[in-house]
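User: Please predict the structure of the protein below. I'd like the answer in structure-token form so I can feed it into my own downstream comparison script.

Assistant: Understood. Taking the following sequence of 422 residues as input:
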Amino acid sequence: MQRPLADEIRPKGLEEVVGQRHLLAPGAVLRRLIESGAEVNMVFYGPSGTGKTTIANIIAQKTRKTLYRLNATTASLQDVKDIIADVDTLLAPGGILLYLDEIQYFNKKQQQSLLEFMENGKLTLIASTTENPYFYVYNALLSRSTVFEFKSVPPEEVLPAVVRALEIAKERAQLPLEWEEGLPGQIAHACGGDVRKAVNAVELLCQAAQVRDGKLWLTCGDAEQVAQKSAMRYDKGGDAMYDIASALMKSLRGSDPDAALHYLARFLEAGDLVTPCRRLLCSASEDVGMAYPQAVAIVKACVDTAMQLGLPEAQLPLAQAAVLLATAPKSNSIVEGIGRARADVRAGRTGDVPRQLQNVHADTTGFDKKQHYLYPHNFPGHWVDQQYLPDALKGVKYYEWGPNKTEQAAKAYWEKIKGKEL
């Protein structure tokens, strides 16, 4: 039985690792730690297929500790206890190096069981996770570890790994193996920065290769089917989803319709309608606000239409909403205003509601003269000067007119009515 191609191609030294130049370039901290053989607790955080396990294996080769591997998706507390039981025995005379994959699946008690042995140096932990460790890893464990973030590998750095995988597959093949021009680059671009996925795509293509004139042929058409949607990293409820949601929101706020459409498309390709709809609805008030108040109604209509249509037709009203918000004038006066008001309330700066604004039930008993409420519609311009804020907050300003055309027009209107500057 042949070894999986991804396992056979796995780098044995730092020079063979693709990507992660920010961590492994000459002089980088992680590279110096590895080359010095330092025994440091580490957490590797980043997408799948970016070299976390490979680097852990290389580190294990540099130490004299006994290497144990656990995957937190299947390991139990007893597995941890069994490993710790080997500390100070002939099975692990130099100590233990534990590589714990997917640590986010360990609960607090399981993670805590490692602390004592990490503290005294008898166990060195290298944990990996695809989720943000500051959300999923116990604080006491994080304080004893150094976090290194791994990033998706650019296509130009994935390409050498793809070519190497193709050459190994060529040596394995029982018939001559050929491929169409441009196929390695197509796989490198389609893998979404996941080197393992790219190598697995090569292996799958070779297994399904067509035989022509006594040769095995790999075609770009087959590569497109094998790599479909793999370039998009998306995990509903995970970091990738929140990263794309954040990017969509910031693109709308930054008035970049092209970027907004790009991130919207990533949600649509993943079949997620709810998340972009929430972001679009929020942006209508948070980023456009009073600069174009009608945006809320239009975006709500687009969202309702999209939810009724479903995919693929939903892409049209959502794209319309995204372009509208990205190209609309911007104002955060609503965000700033409500933020200042809530800050006062949270700080206890409230006070009694002015008597003239209290519930009018007193008026029905004949005590209306004690309330002294002035009805604005009985006055010119439908406005009359009276106090609305509590005494403790008299004169406080929460809302500031934005510099856009709509808010400045409203400001000018009320300055004229009130006969003074606002």
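That's the full token string. The beta strands are 42-45, 66-71, 96-101, 123-129, 146-149, 177-179, 210-212, 215-218.
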